[in-house]
Write a structure and sequence with these properties.
Blueprint (H helix, E strand, L loop, with lengths): L1 E2 L8 E8 L2 H12 L2 E8 L2 E8 L2 E8 L2 H5 L5 E7 L3 H10 L3 E9 L3 E7 L5 E7 L7 E2 L5 E7 L3 H12 L2 E4 L9 E5 L2 E6 L12 E7 L3 H10 L3 E9 L3 E7 L5 E7 L2 H5 L1
Helix pairs in contact: 1-5
């Protein structure tokens, strides 16, 4: 376990589930990740869930709004990127060809946010922290650890995010058969952009959140028994780790990850 006191600008600082059944989601994720739920009332029949581990914030959940449902927005995980100024970054995103879906606004005294769509269609959020700094724990079972951008235009997406957040986008190697691009923010590797050939035609561009697990097979089995659909069963990636991609019972997609041991990676 590692505590997070502050997120560097450009880092993924929050993961938020938007779902059709918040109580069912609480039950599902509490069982596979060990999250406890701190429900905060937002209205007569509405609440916002802060998922916690060891008393520290790990993620959040809310119910899709009626207007989102009417537009056919499916259950999904939102990823937030830490910024020093939501207003300046949103303005810059628009200049770079992105679309500001929700202009910057204050979330009570927690912080200031905006919702942005990149030029290839993937949506993400900006977070300018005030009292809520974002996730407060990492490196243990049930914590956000990585994010992949699934997009039909790897090059355009890479240029956009590099210009917006200062991310360094690096190729895995010079082998064209690989072509997975790593995302580095400052000194930290935080995600990647898989080859465009891996993007399923007809599927909107999107970010995929990864959560660390202590045992990929056990977590995938537990998720499946609780109603999840495994899109990719636990699979080994050499010198990286074991990964499974799935949809929760309400169909929000996410991935779980167990890092390869150092001994295994060096052998």
């Amino acid at each position: 376990m590692a505590n997070i006191e502050k997120h560097a600008p450009g880092s993924f600082c929050w993961a938020e589930l938007a779902t059709t059944d918040q109580n069912a989601a609480i039950n599902f994720y509490s069982k596979i990740f060990g999250w406890s739920a701190n429900n905060m009332p937002m209205g007569p029949n509405d609440f916002y869930t802060i998922f916690q581990l060891e008393g520290r914030d790990a993620a959040a959940g809310c119910t899709l709004r009626p207007d989102q449902l009417s537009r056919g927005v499916p259950p999904h995980w939102n990823l937030y990127v830490a910024v020093e100024s939501a207003d300046a970054t949103a303005s810059r995103a628009a200049e770079l060809g992105g679309k500001v879906l929700a202009p910057p606004f204050d979330v009570f005294d927690a912080g200031r946010m905006a919702v942005v769509q990149d030029p290839t269609g993937a949506t993400f959020c900006l977070w300018q922290a005030n009292k809520n700094r974002g996730t407060g724990i990492s490196a243990s079972h049930g914590t956000l650890c990585w994010a992949d951008l699934s997009t039909p235009d790897q090059a355009s997406a890479g240029q956009f995010y590099s210009a917006l957040f200062g991310w360094q986008i690096m190729k895995e190697d010079e082998d064209p058969a690989h072509n997975y691009w790593h995302i580095q923010n400052g000194e930290e590797f935080i995600g990647g952009i898989p080859p465009s050939a891996h993007h399923r035609p007809g599927t909107p561009a999107h970010w995929l959140a990864y959560f660390t697990v202590s045992d990929c097979d056990a977590a995938a089995t537990a998720a499946k028994n609780l109603g999840a659909e495994l899109y990719m069963p636990p699979t080994d990636f050499e010198n990286v780790g074991r990964i499974s991609v799935m949809a929760d019972p309400q169909s929000a997609t996410f991935a779980i990850f167990k890092a390869a041991s150092r001994a295994a990676s060096s052998s």
